UniProtKB/TrEMBL annotation:
Natural source organism: Paenibacillus athensensis
Pfam family, one: Rv2525c_GlyHyd-like
Residues covered by the Rv2525c-like glycoside hydrolase-like domain: 19-193
Database matches in InterPro entries: GH, Rv2525c-like_Glyco_Hydro-like
Protein name according to UniProt: Rv2525c-like glycoside hydrolase-like domain-containing protein
Highest taxon above the source species: Bacteria
Length: 209
């Protein structure tokens, strides 16, 4: 298995892309969201990252998916549609590459089996519906703890990518063998805070022209 090291950032990387390349990062995790927030991947940033030879990994994180109250079937449908539209219409993300969807809290097993699974049922159905309308198919990934990733992926075969969180203090810190990306420790690049990420060689990165 060929491993690669990348990063995850909540800010625009255009001004530090040369340093990212020099420090040996092969891919950058960047965000899709509904609002004009610094974490939002812009088309110009996507072009700059791609032109530098660095792959992009897309993570949808709209609002605060950090408690059980966020996760409903209807929110999943809405998030799927918005993420699909941003990927296809704004960024030009290539087909057959994943959009990851975040579960950003220490979710107990009952949440993973309940509201979070309902949310991902909405994600799966929403992506399928958008694909039927527009003809471009995107894969689906999940970001979360080992327990959340395992539980949700066991229920939905359409979810084929896992980004394993390494948030300190989360109760479920055991290994999950089917991960594609695994979060690592934080550091900085030219003063920008990042988190390191390891790929198993199939993290779902893409470039745009």
């Amino acid at each position: 298995m060929r491993m690669a090291v990348g990063l995850d950032s909540s800010v625009n990387l255009e001004r530090v892309i040369k340093q990212i390349v020099q420090e040996g990062y092969h891919f950058a995790g960047r965000y899709y969201c509904q609002t004009d927030h610094p974490k939002l991947l812009t088309p110009s940033e996507a072009r700059a990252i791609s032109a530098a030879g660095v792959y992009i990994v897309a993570l949808w994180k709209n609002g605060y998916p950090s408690s059980s109250g966020y996760f409903t079937y209807h929110t999943g449908l809405e998030d799927a549609q918005m993420a699909y539209n941003y990927a296809k219409m704004i960024i030009g993300q290539p087909a057959a590459t994943p959009i990851y969807f975040a579960v950003d809290y220490d979710a107990p097993l009952e949440d993973a089996r309940g509201c979070i699974s309902e949310y991902f049922r909405g994600i799966v159905e929403g992506i399928k519906a958008a694909t039927e309308r527009h003809g471009v198919q995107y894969d689906i990934g999940i970001y979360g703890s080992a327990s959340v990733c395992e539980t949700v992926m066991n229920q939905f075969t359409d979810i084929t990518y896992a980004w394993l969180s390494a948030s300190p203090g989360w109760s479920d810190s055991r290994e999950f063998e089917k991960w594609n990306l695994k979060q690592g420790p934080g550091t900085t690049v030219s003063g920008i805070d990042i988190e390191t990420v390891v790929s198993n060689g199939n993290g779902g990165g893409f470039k745009i022209g």
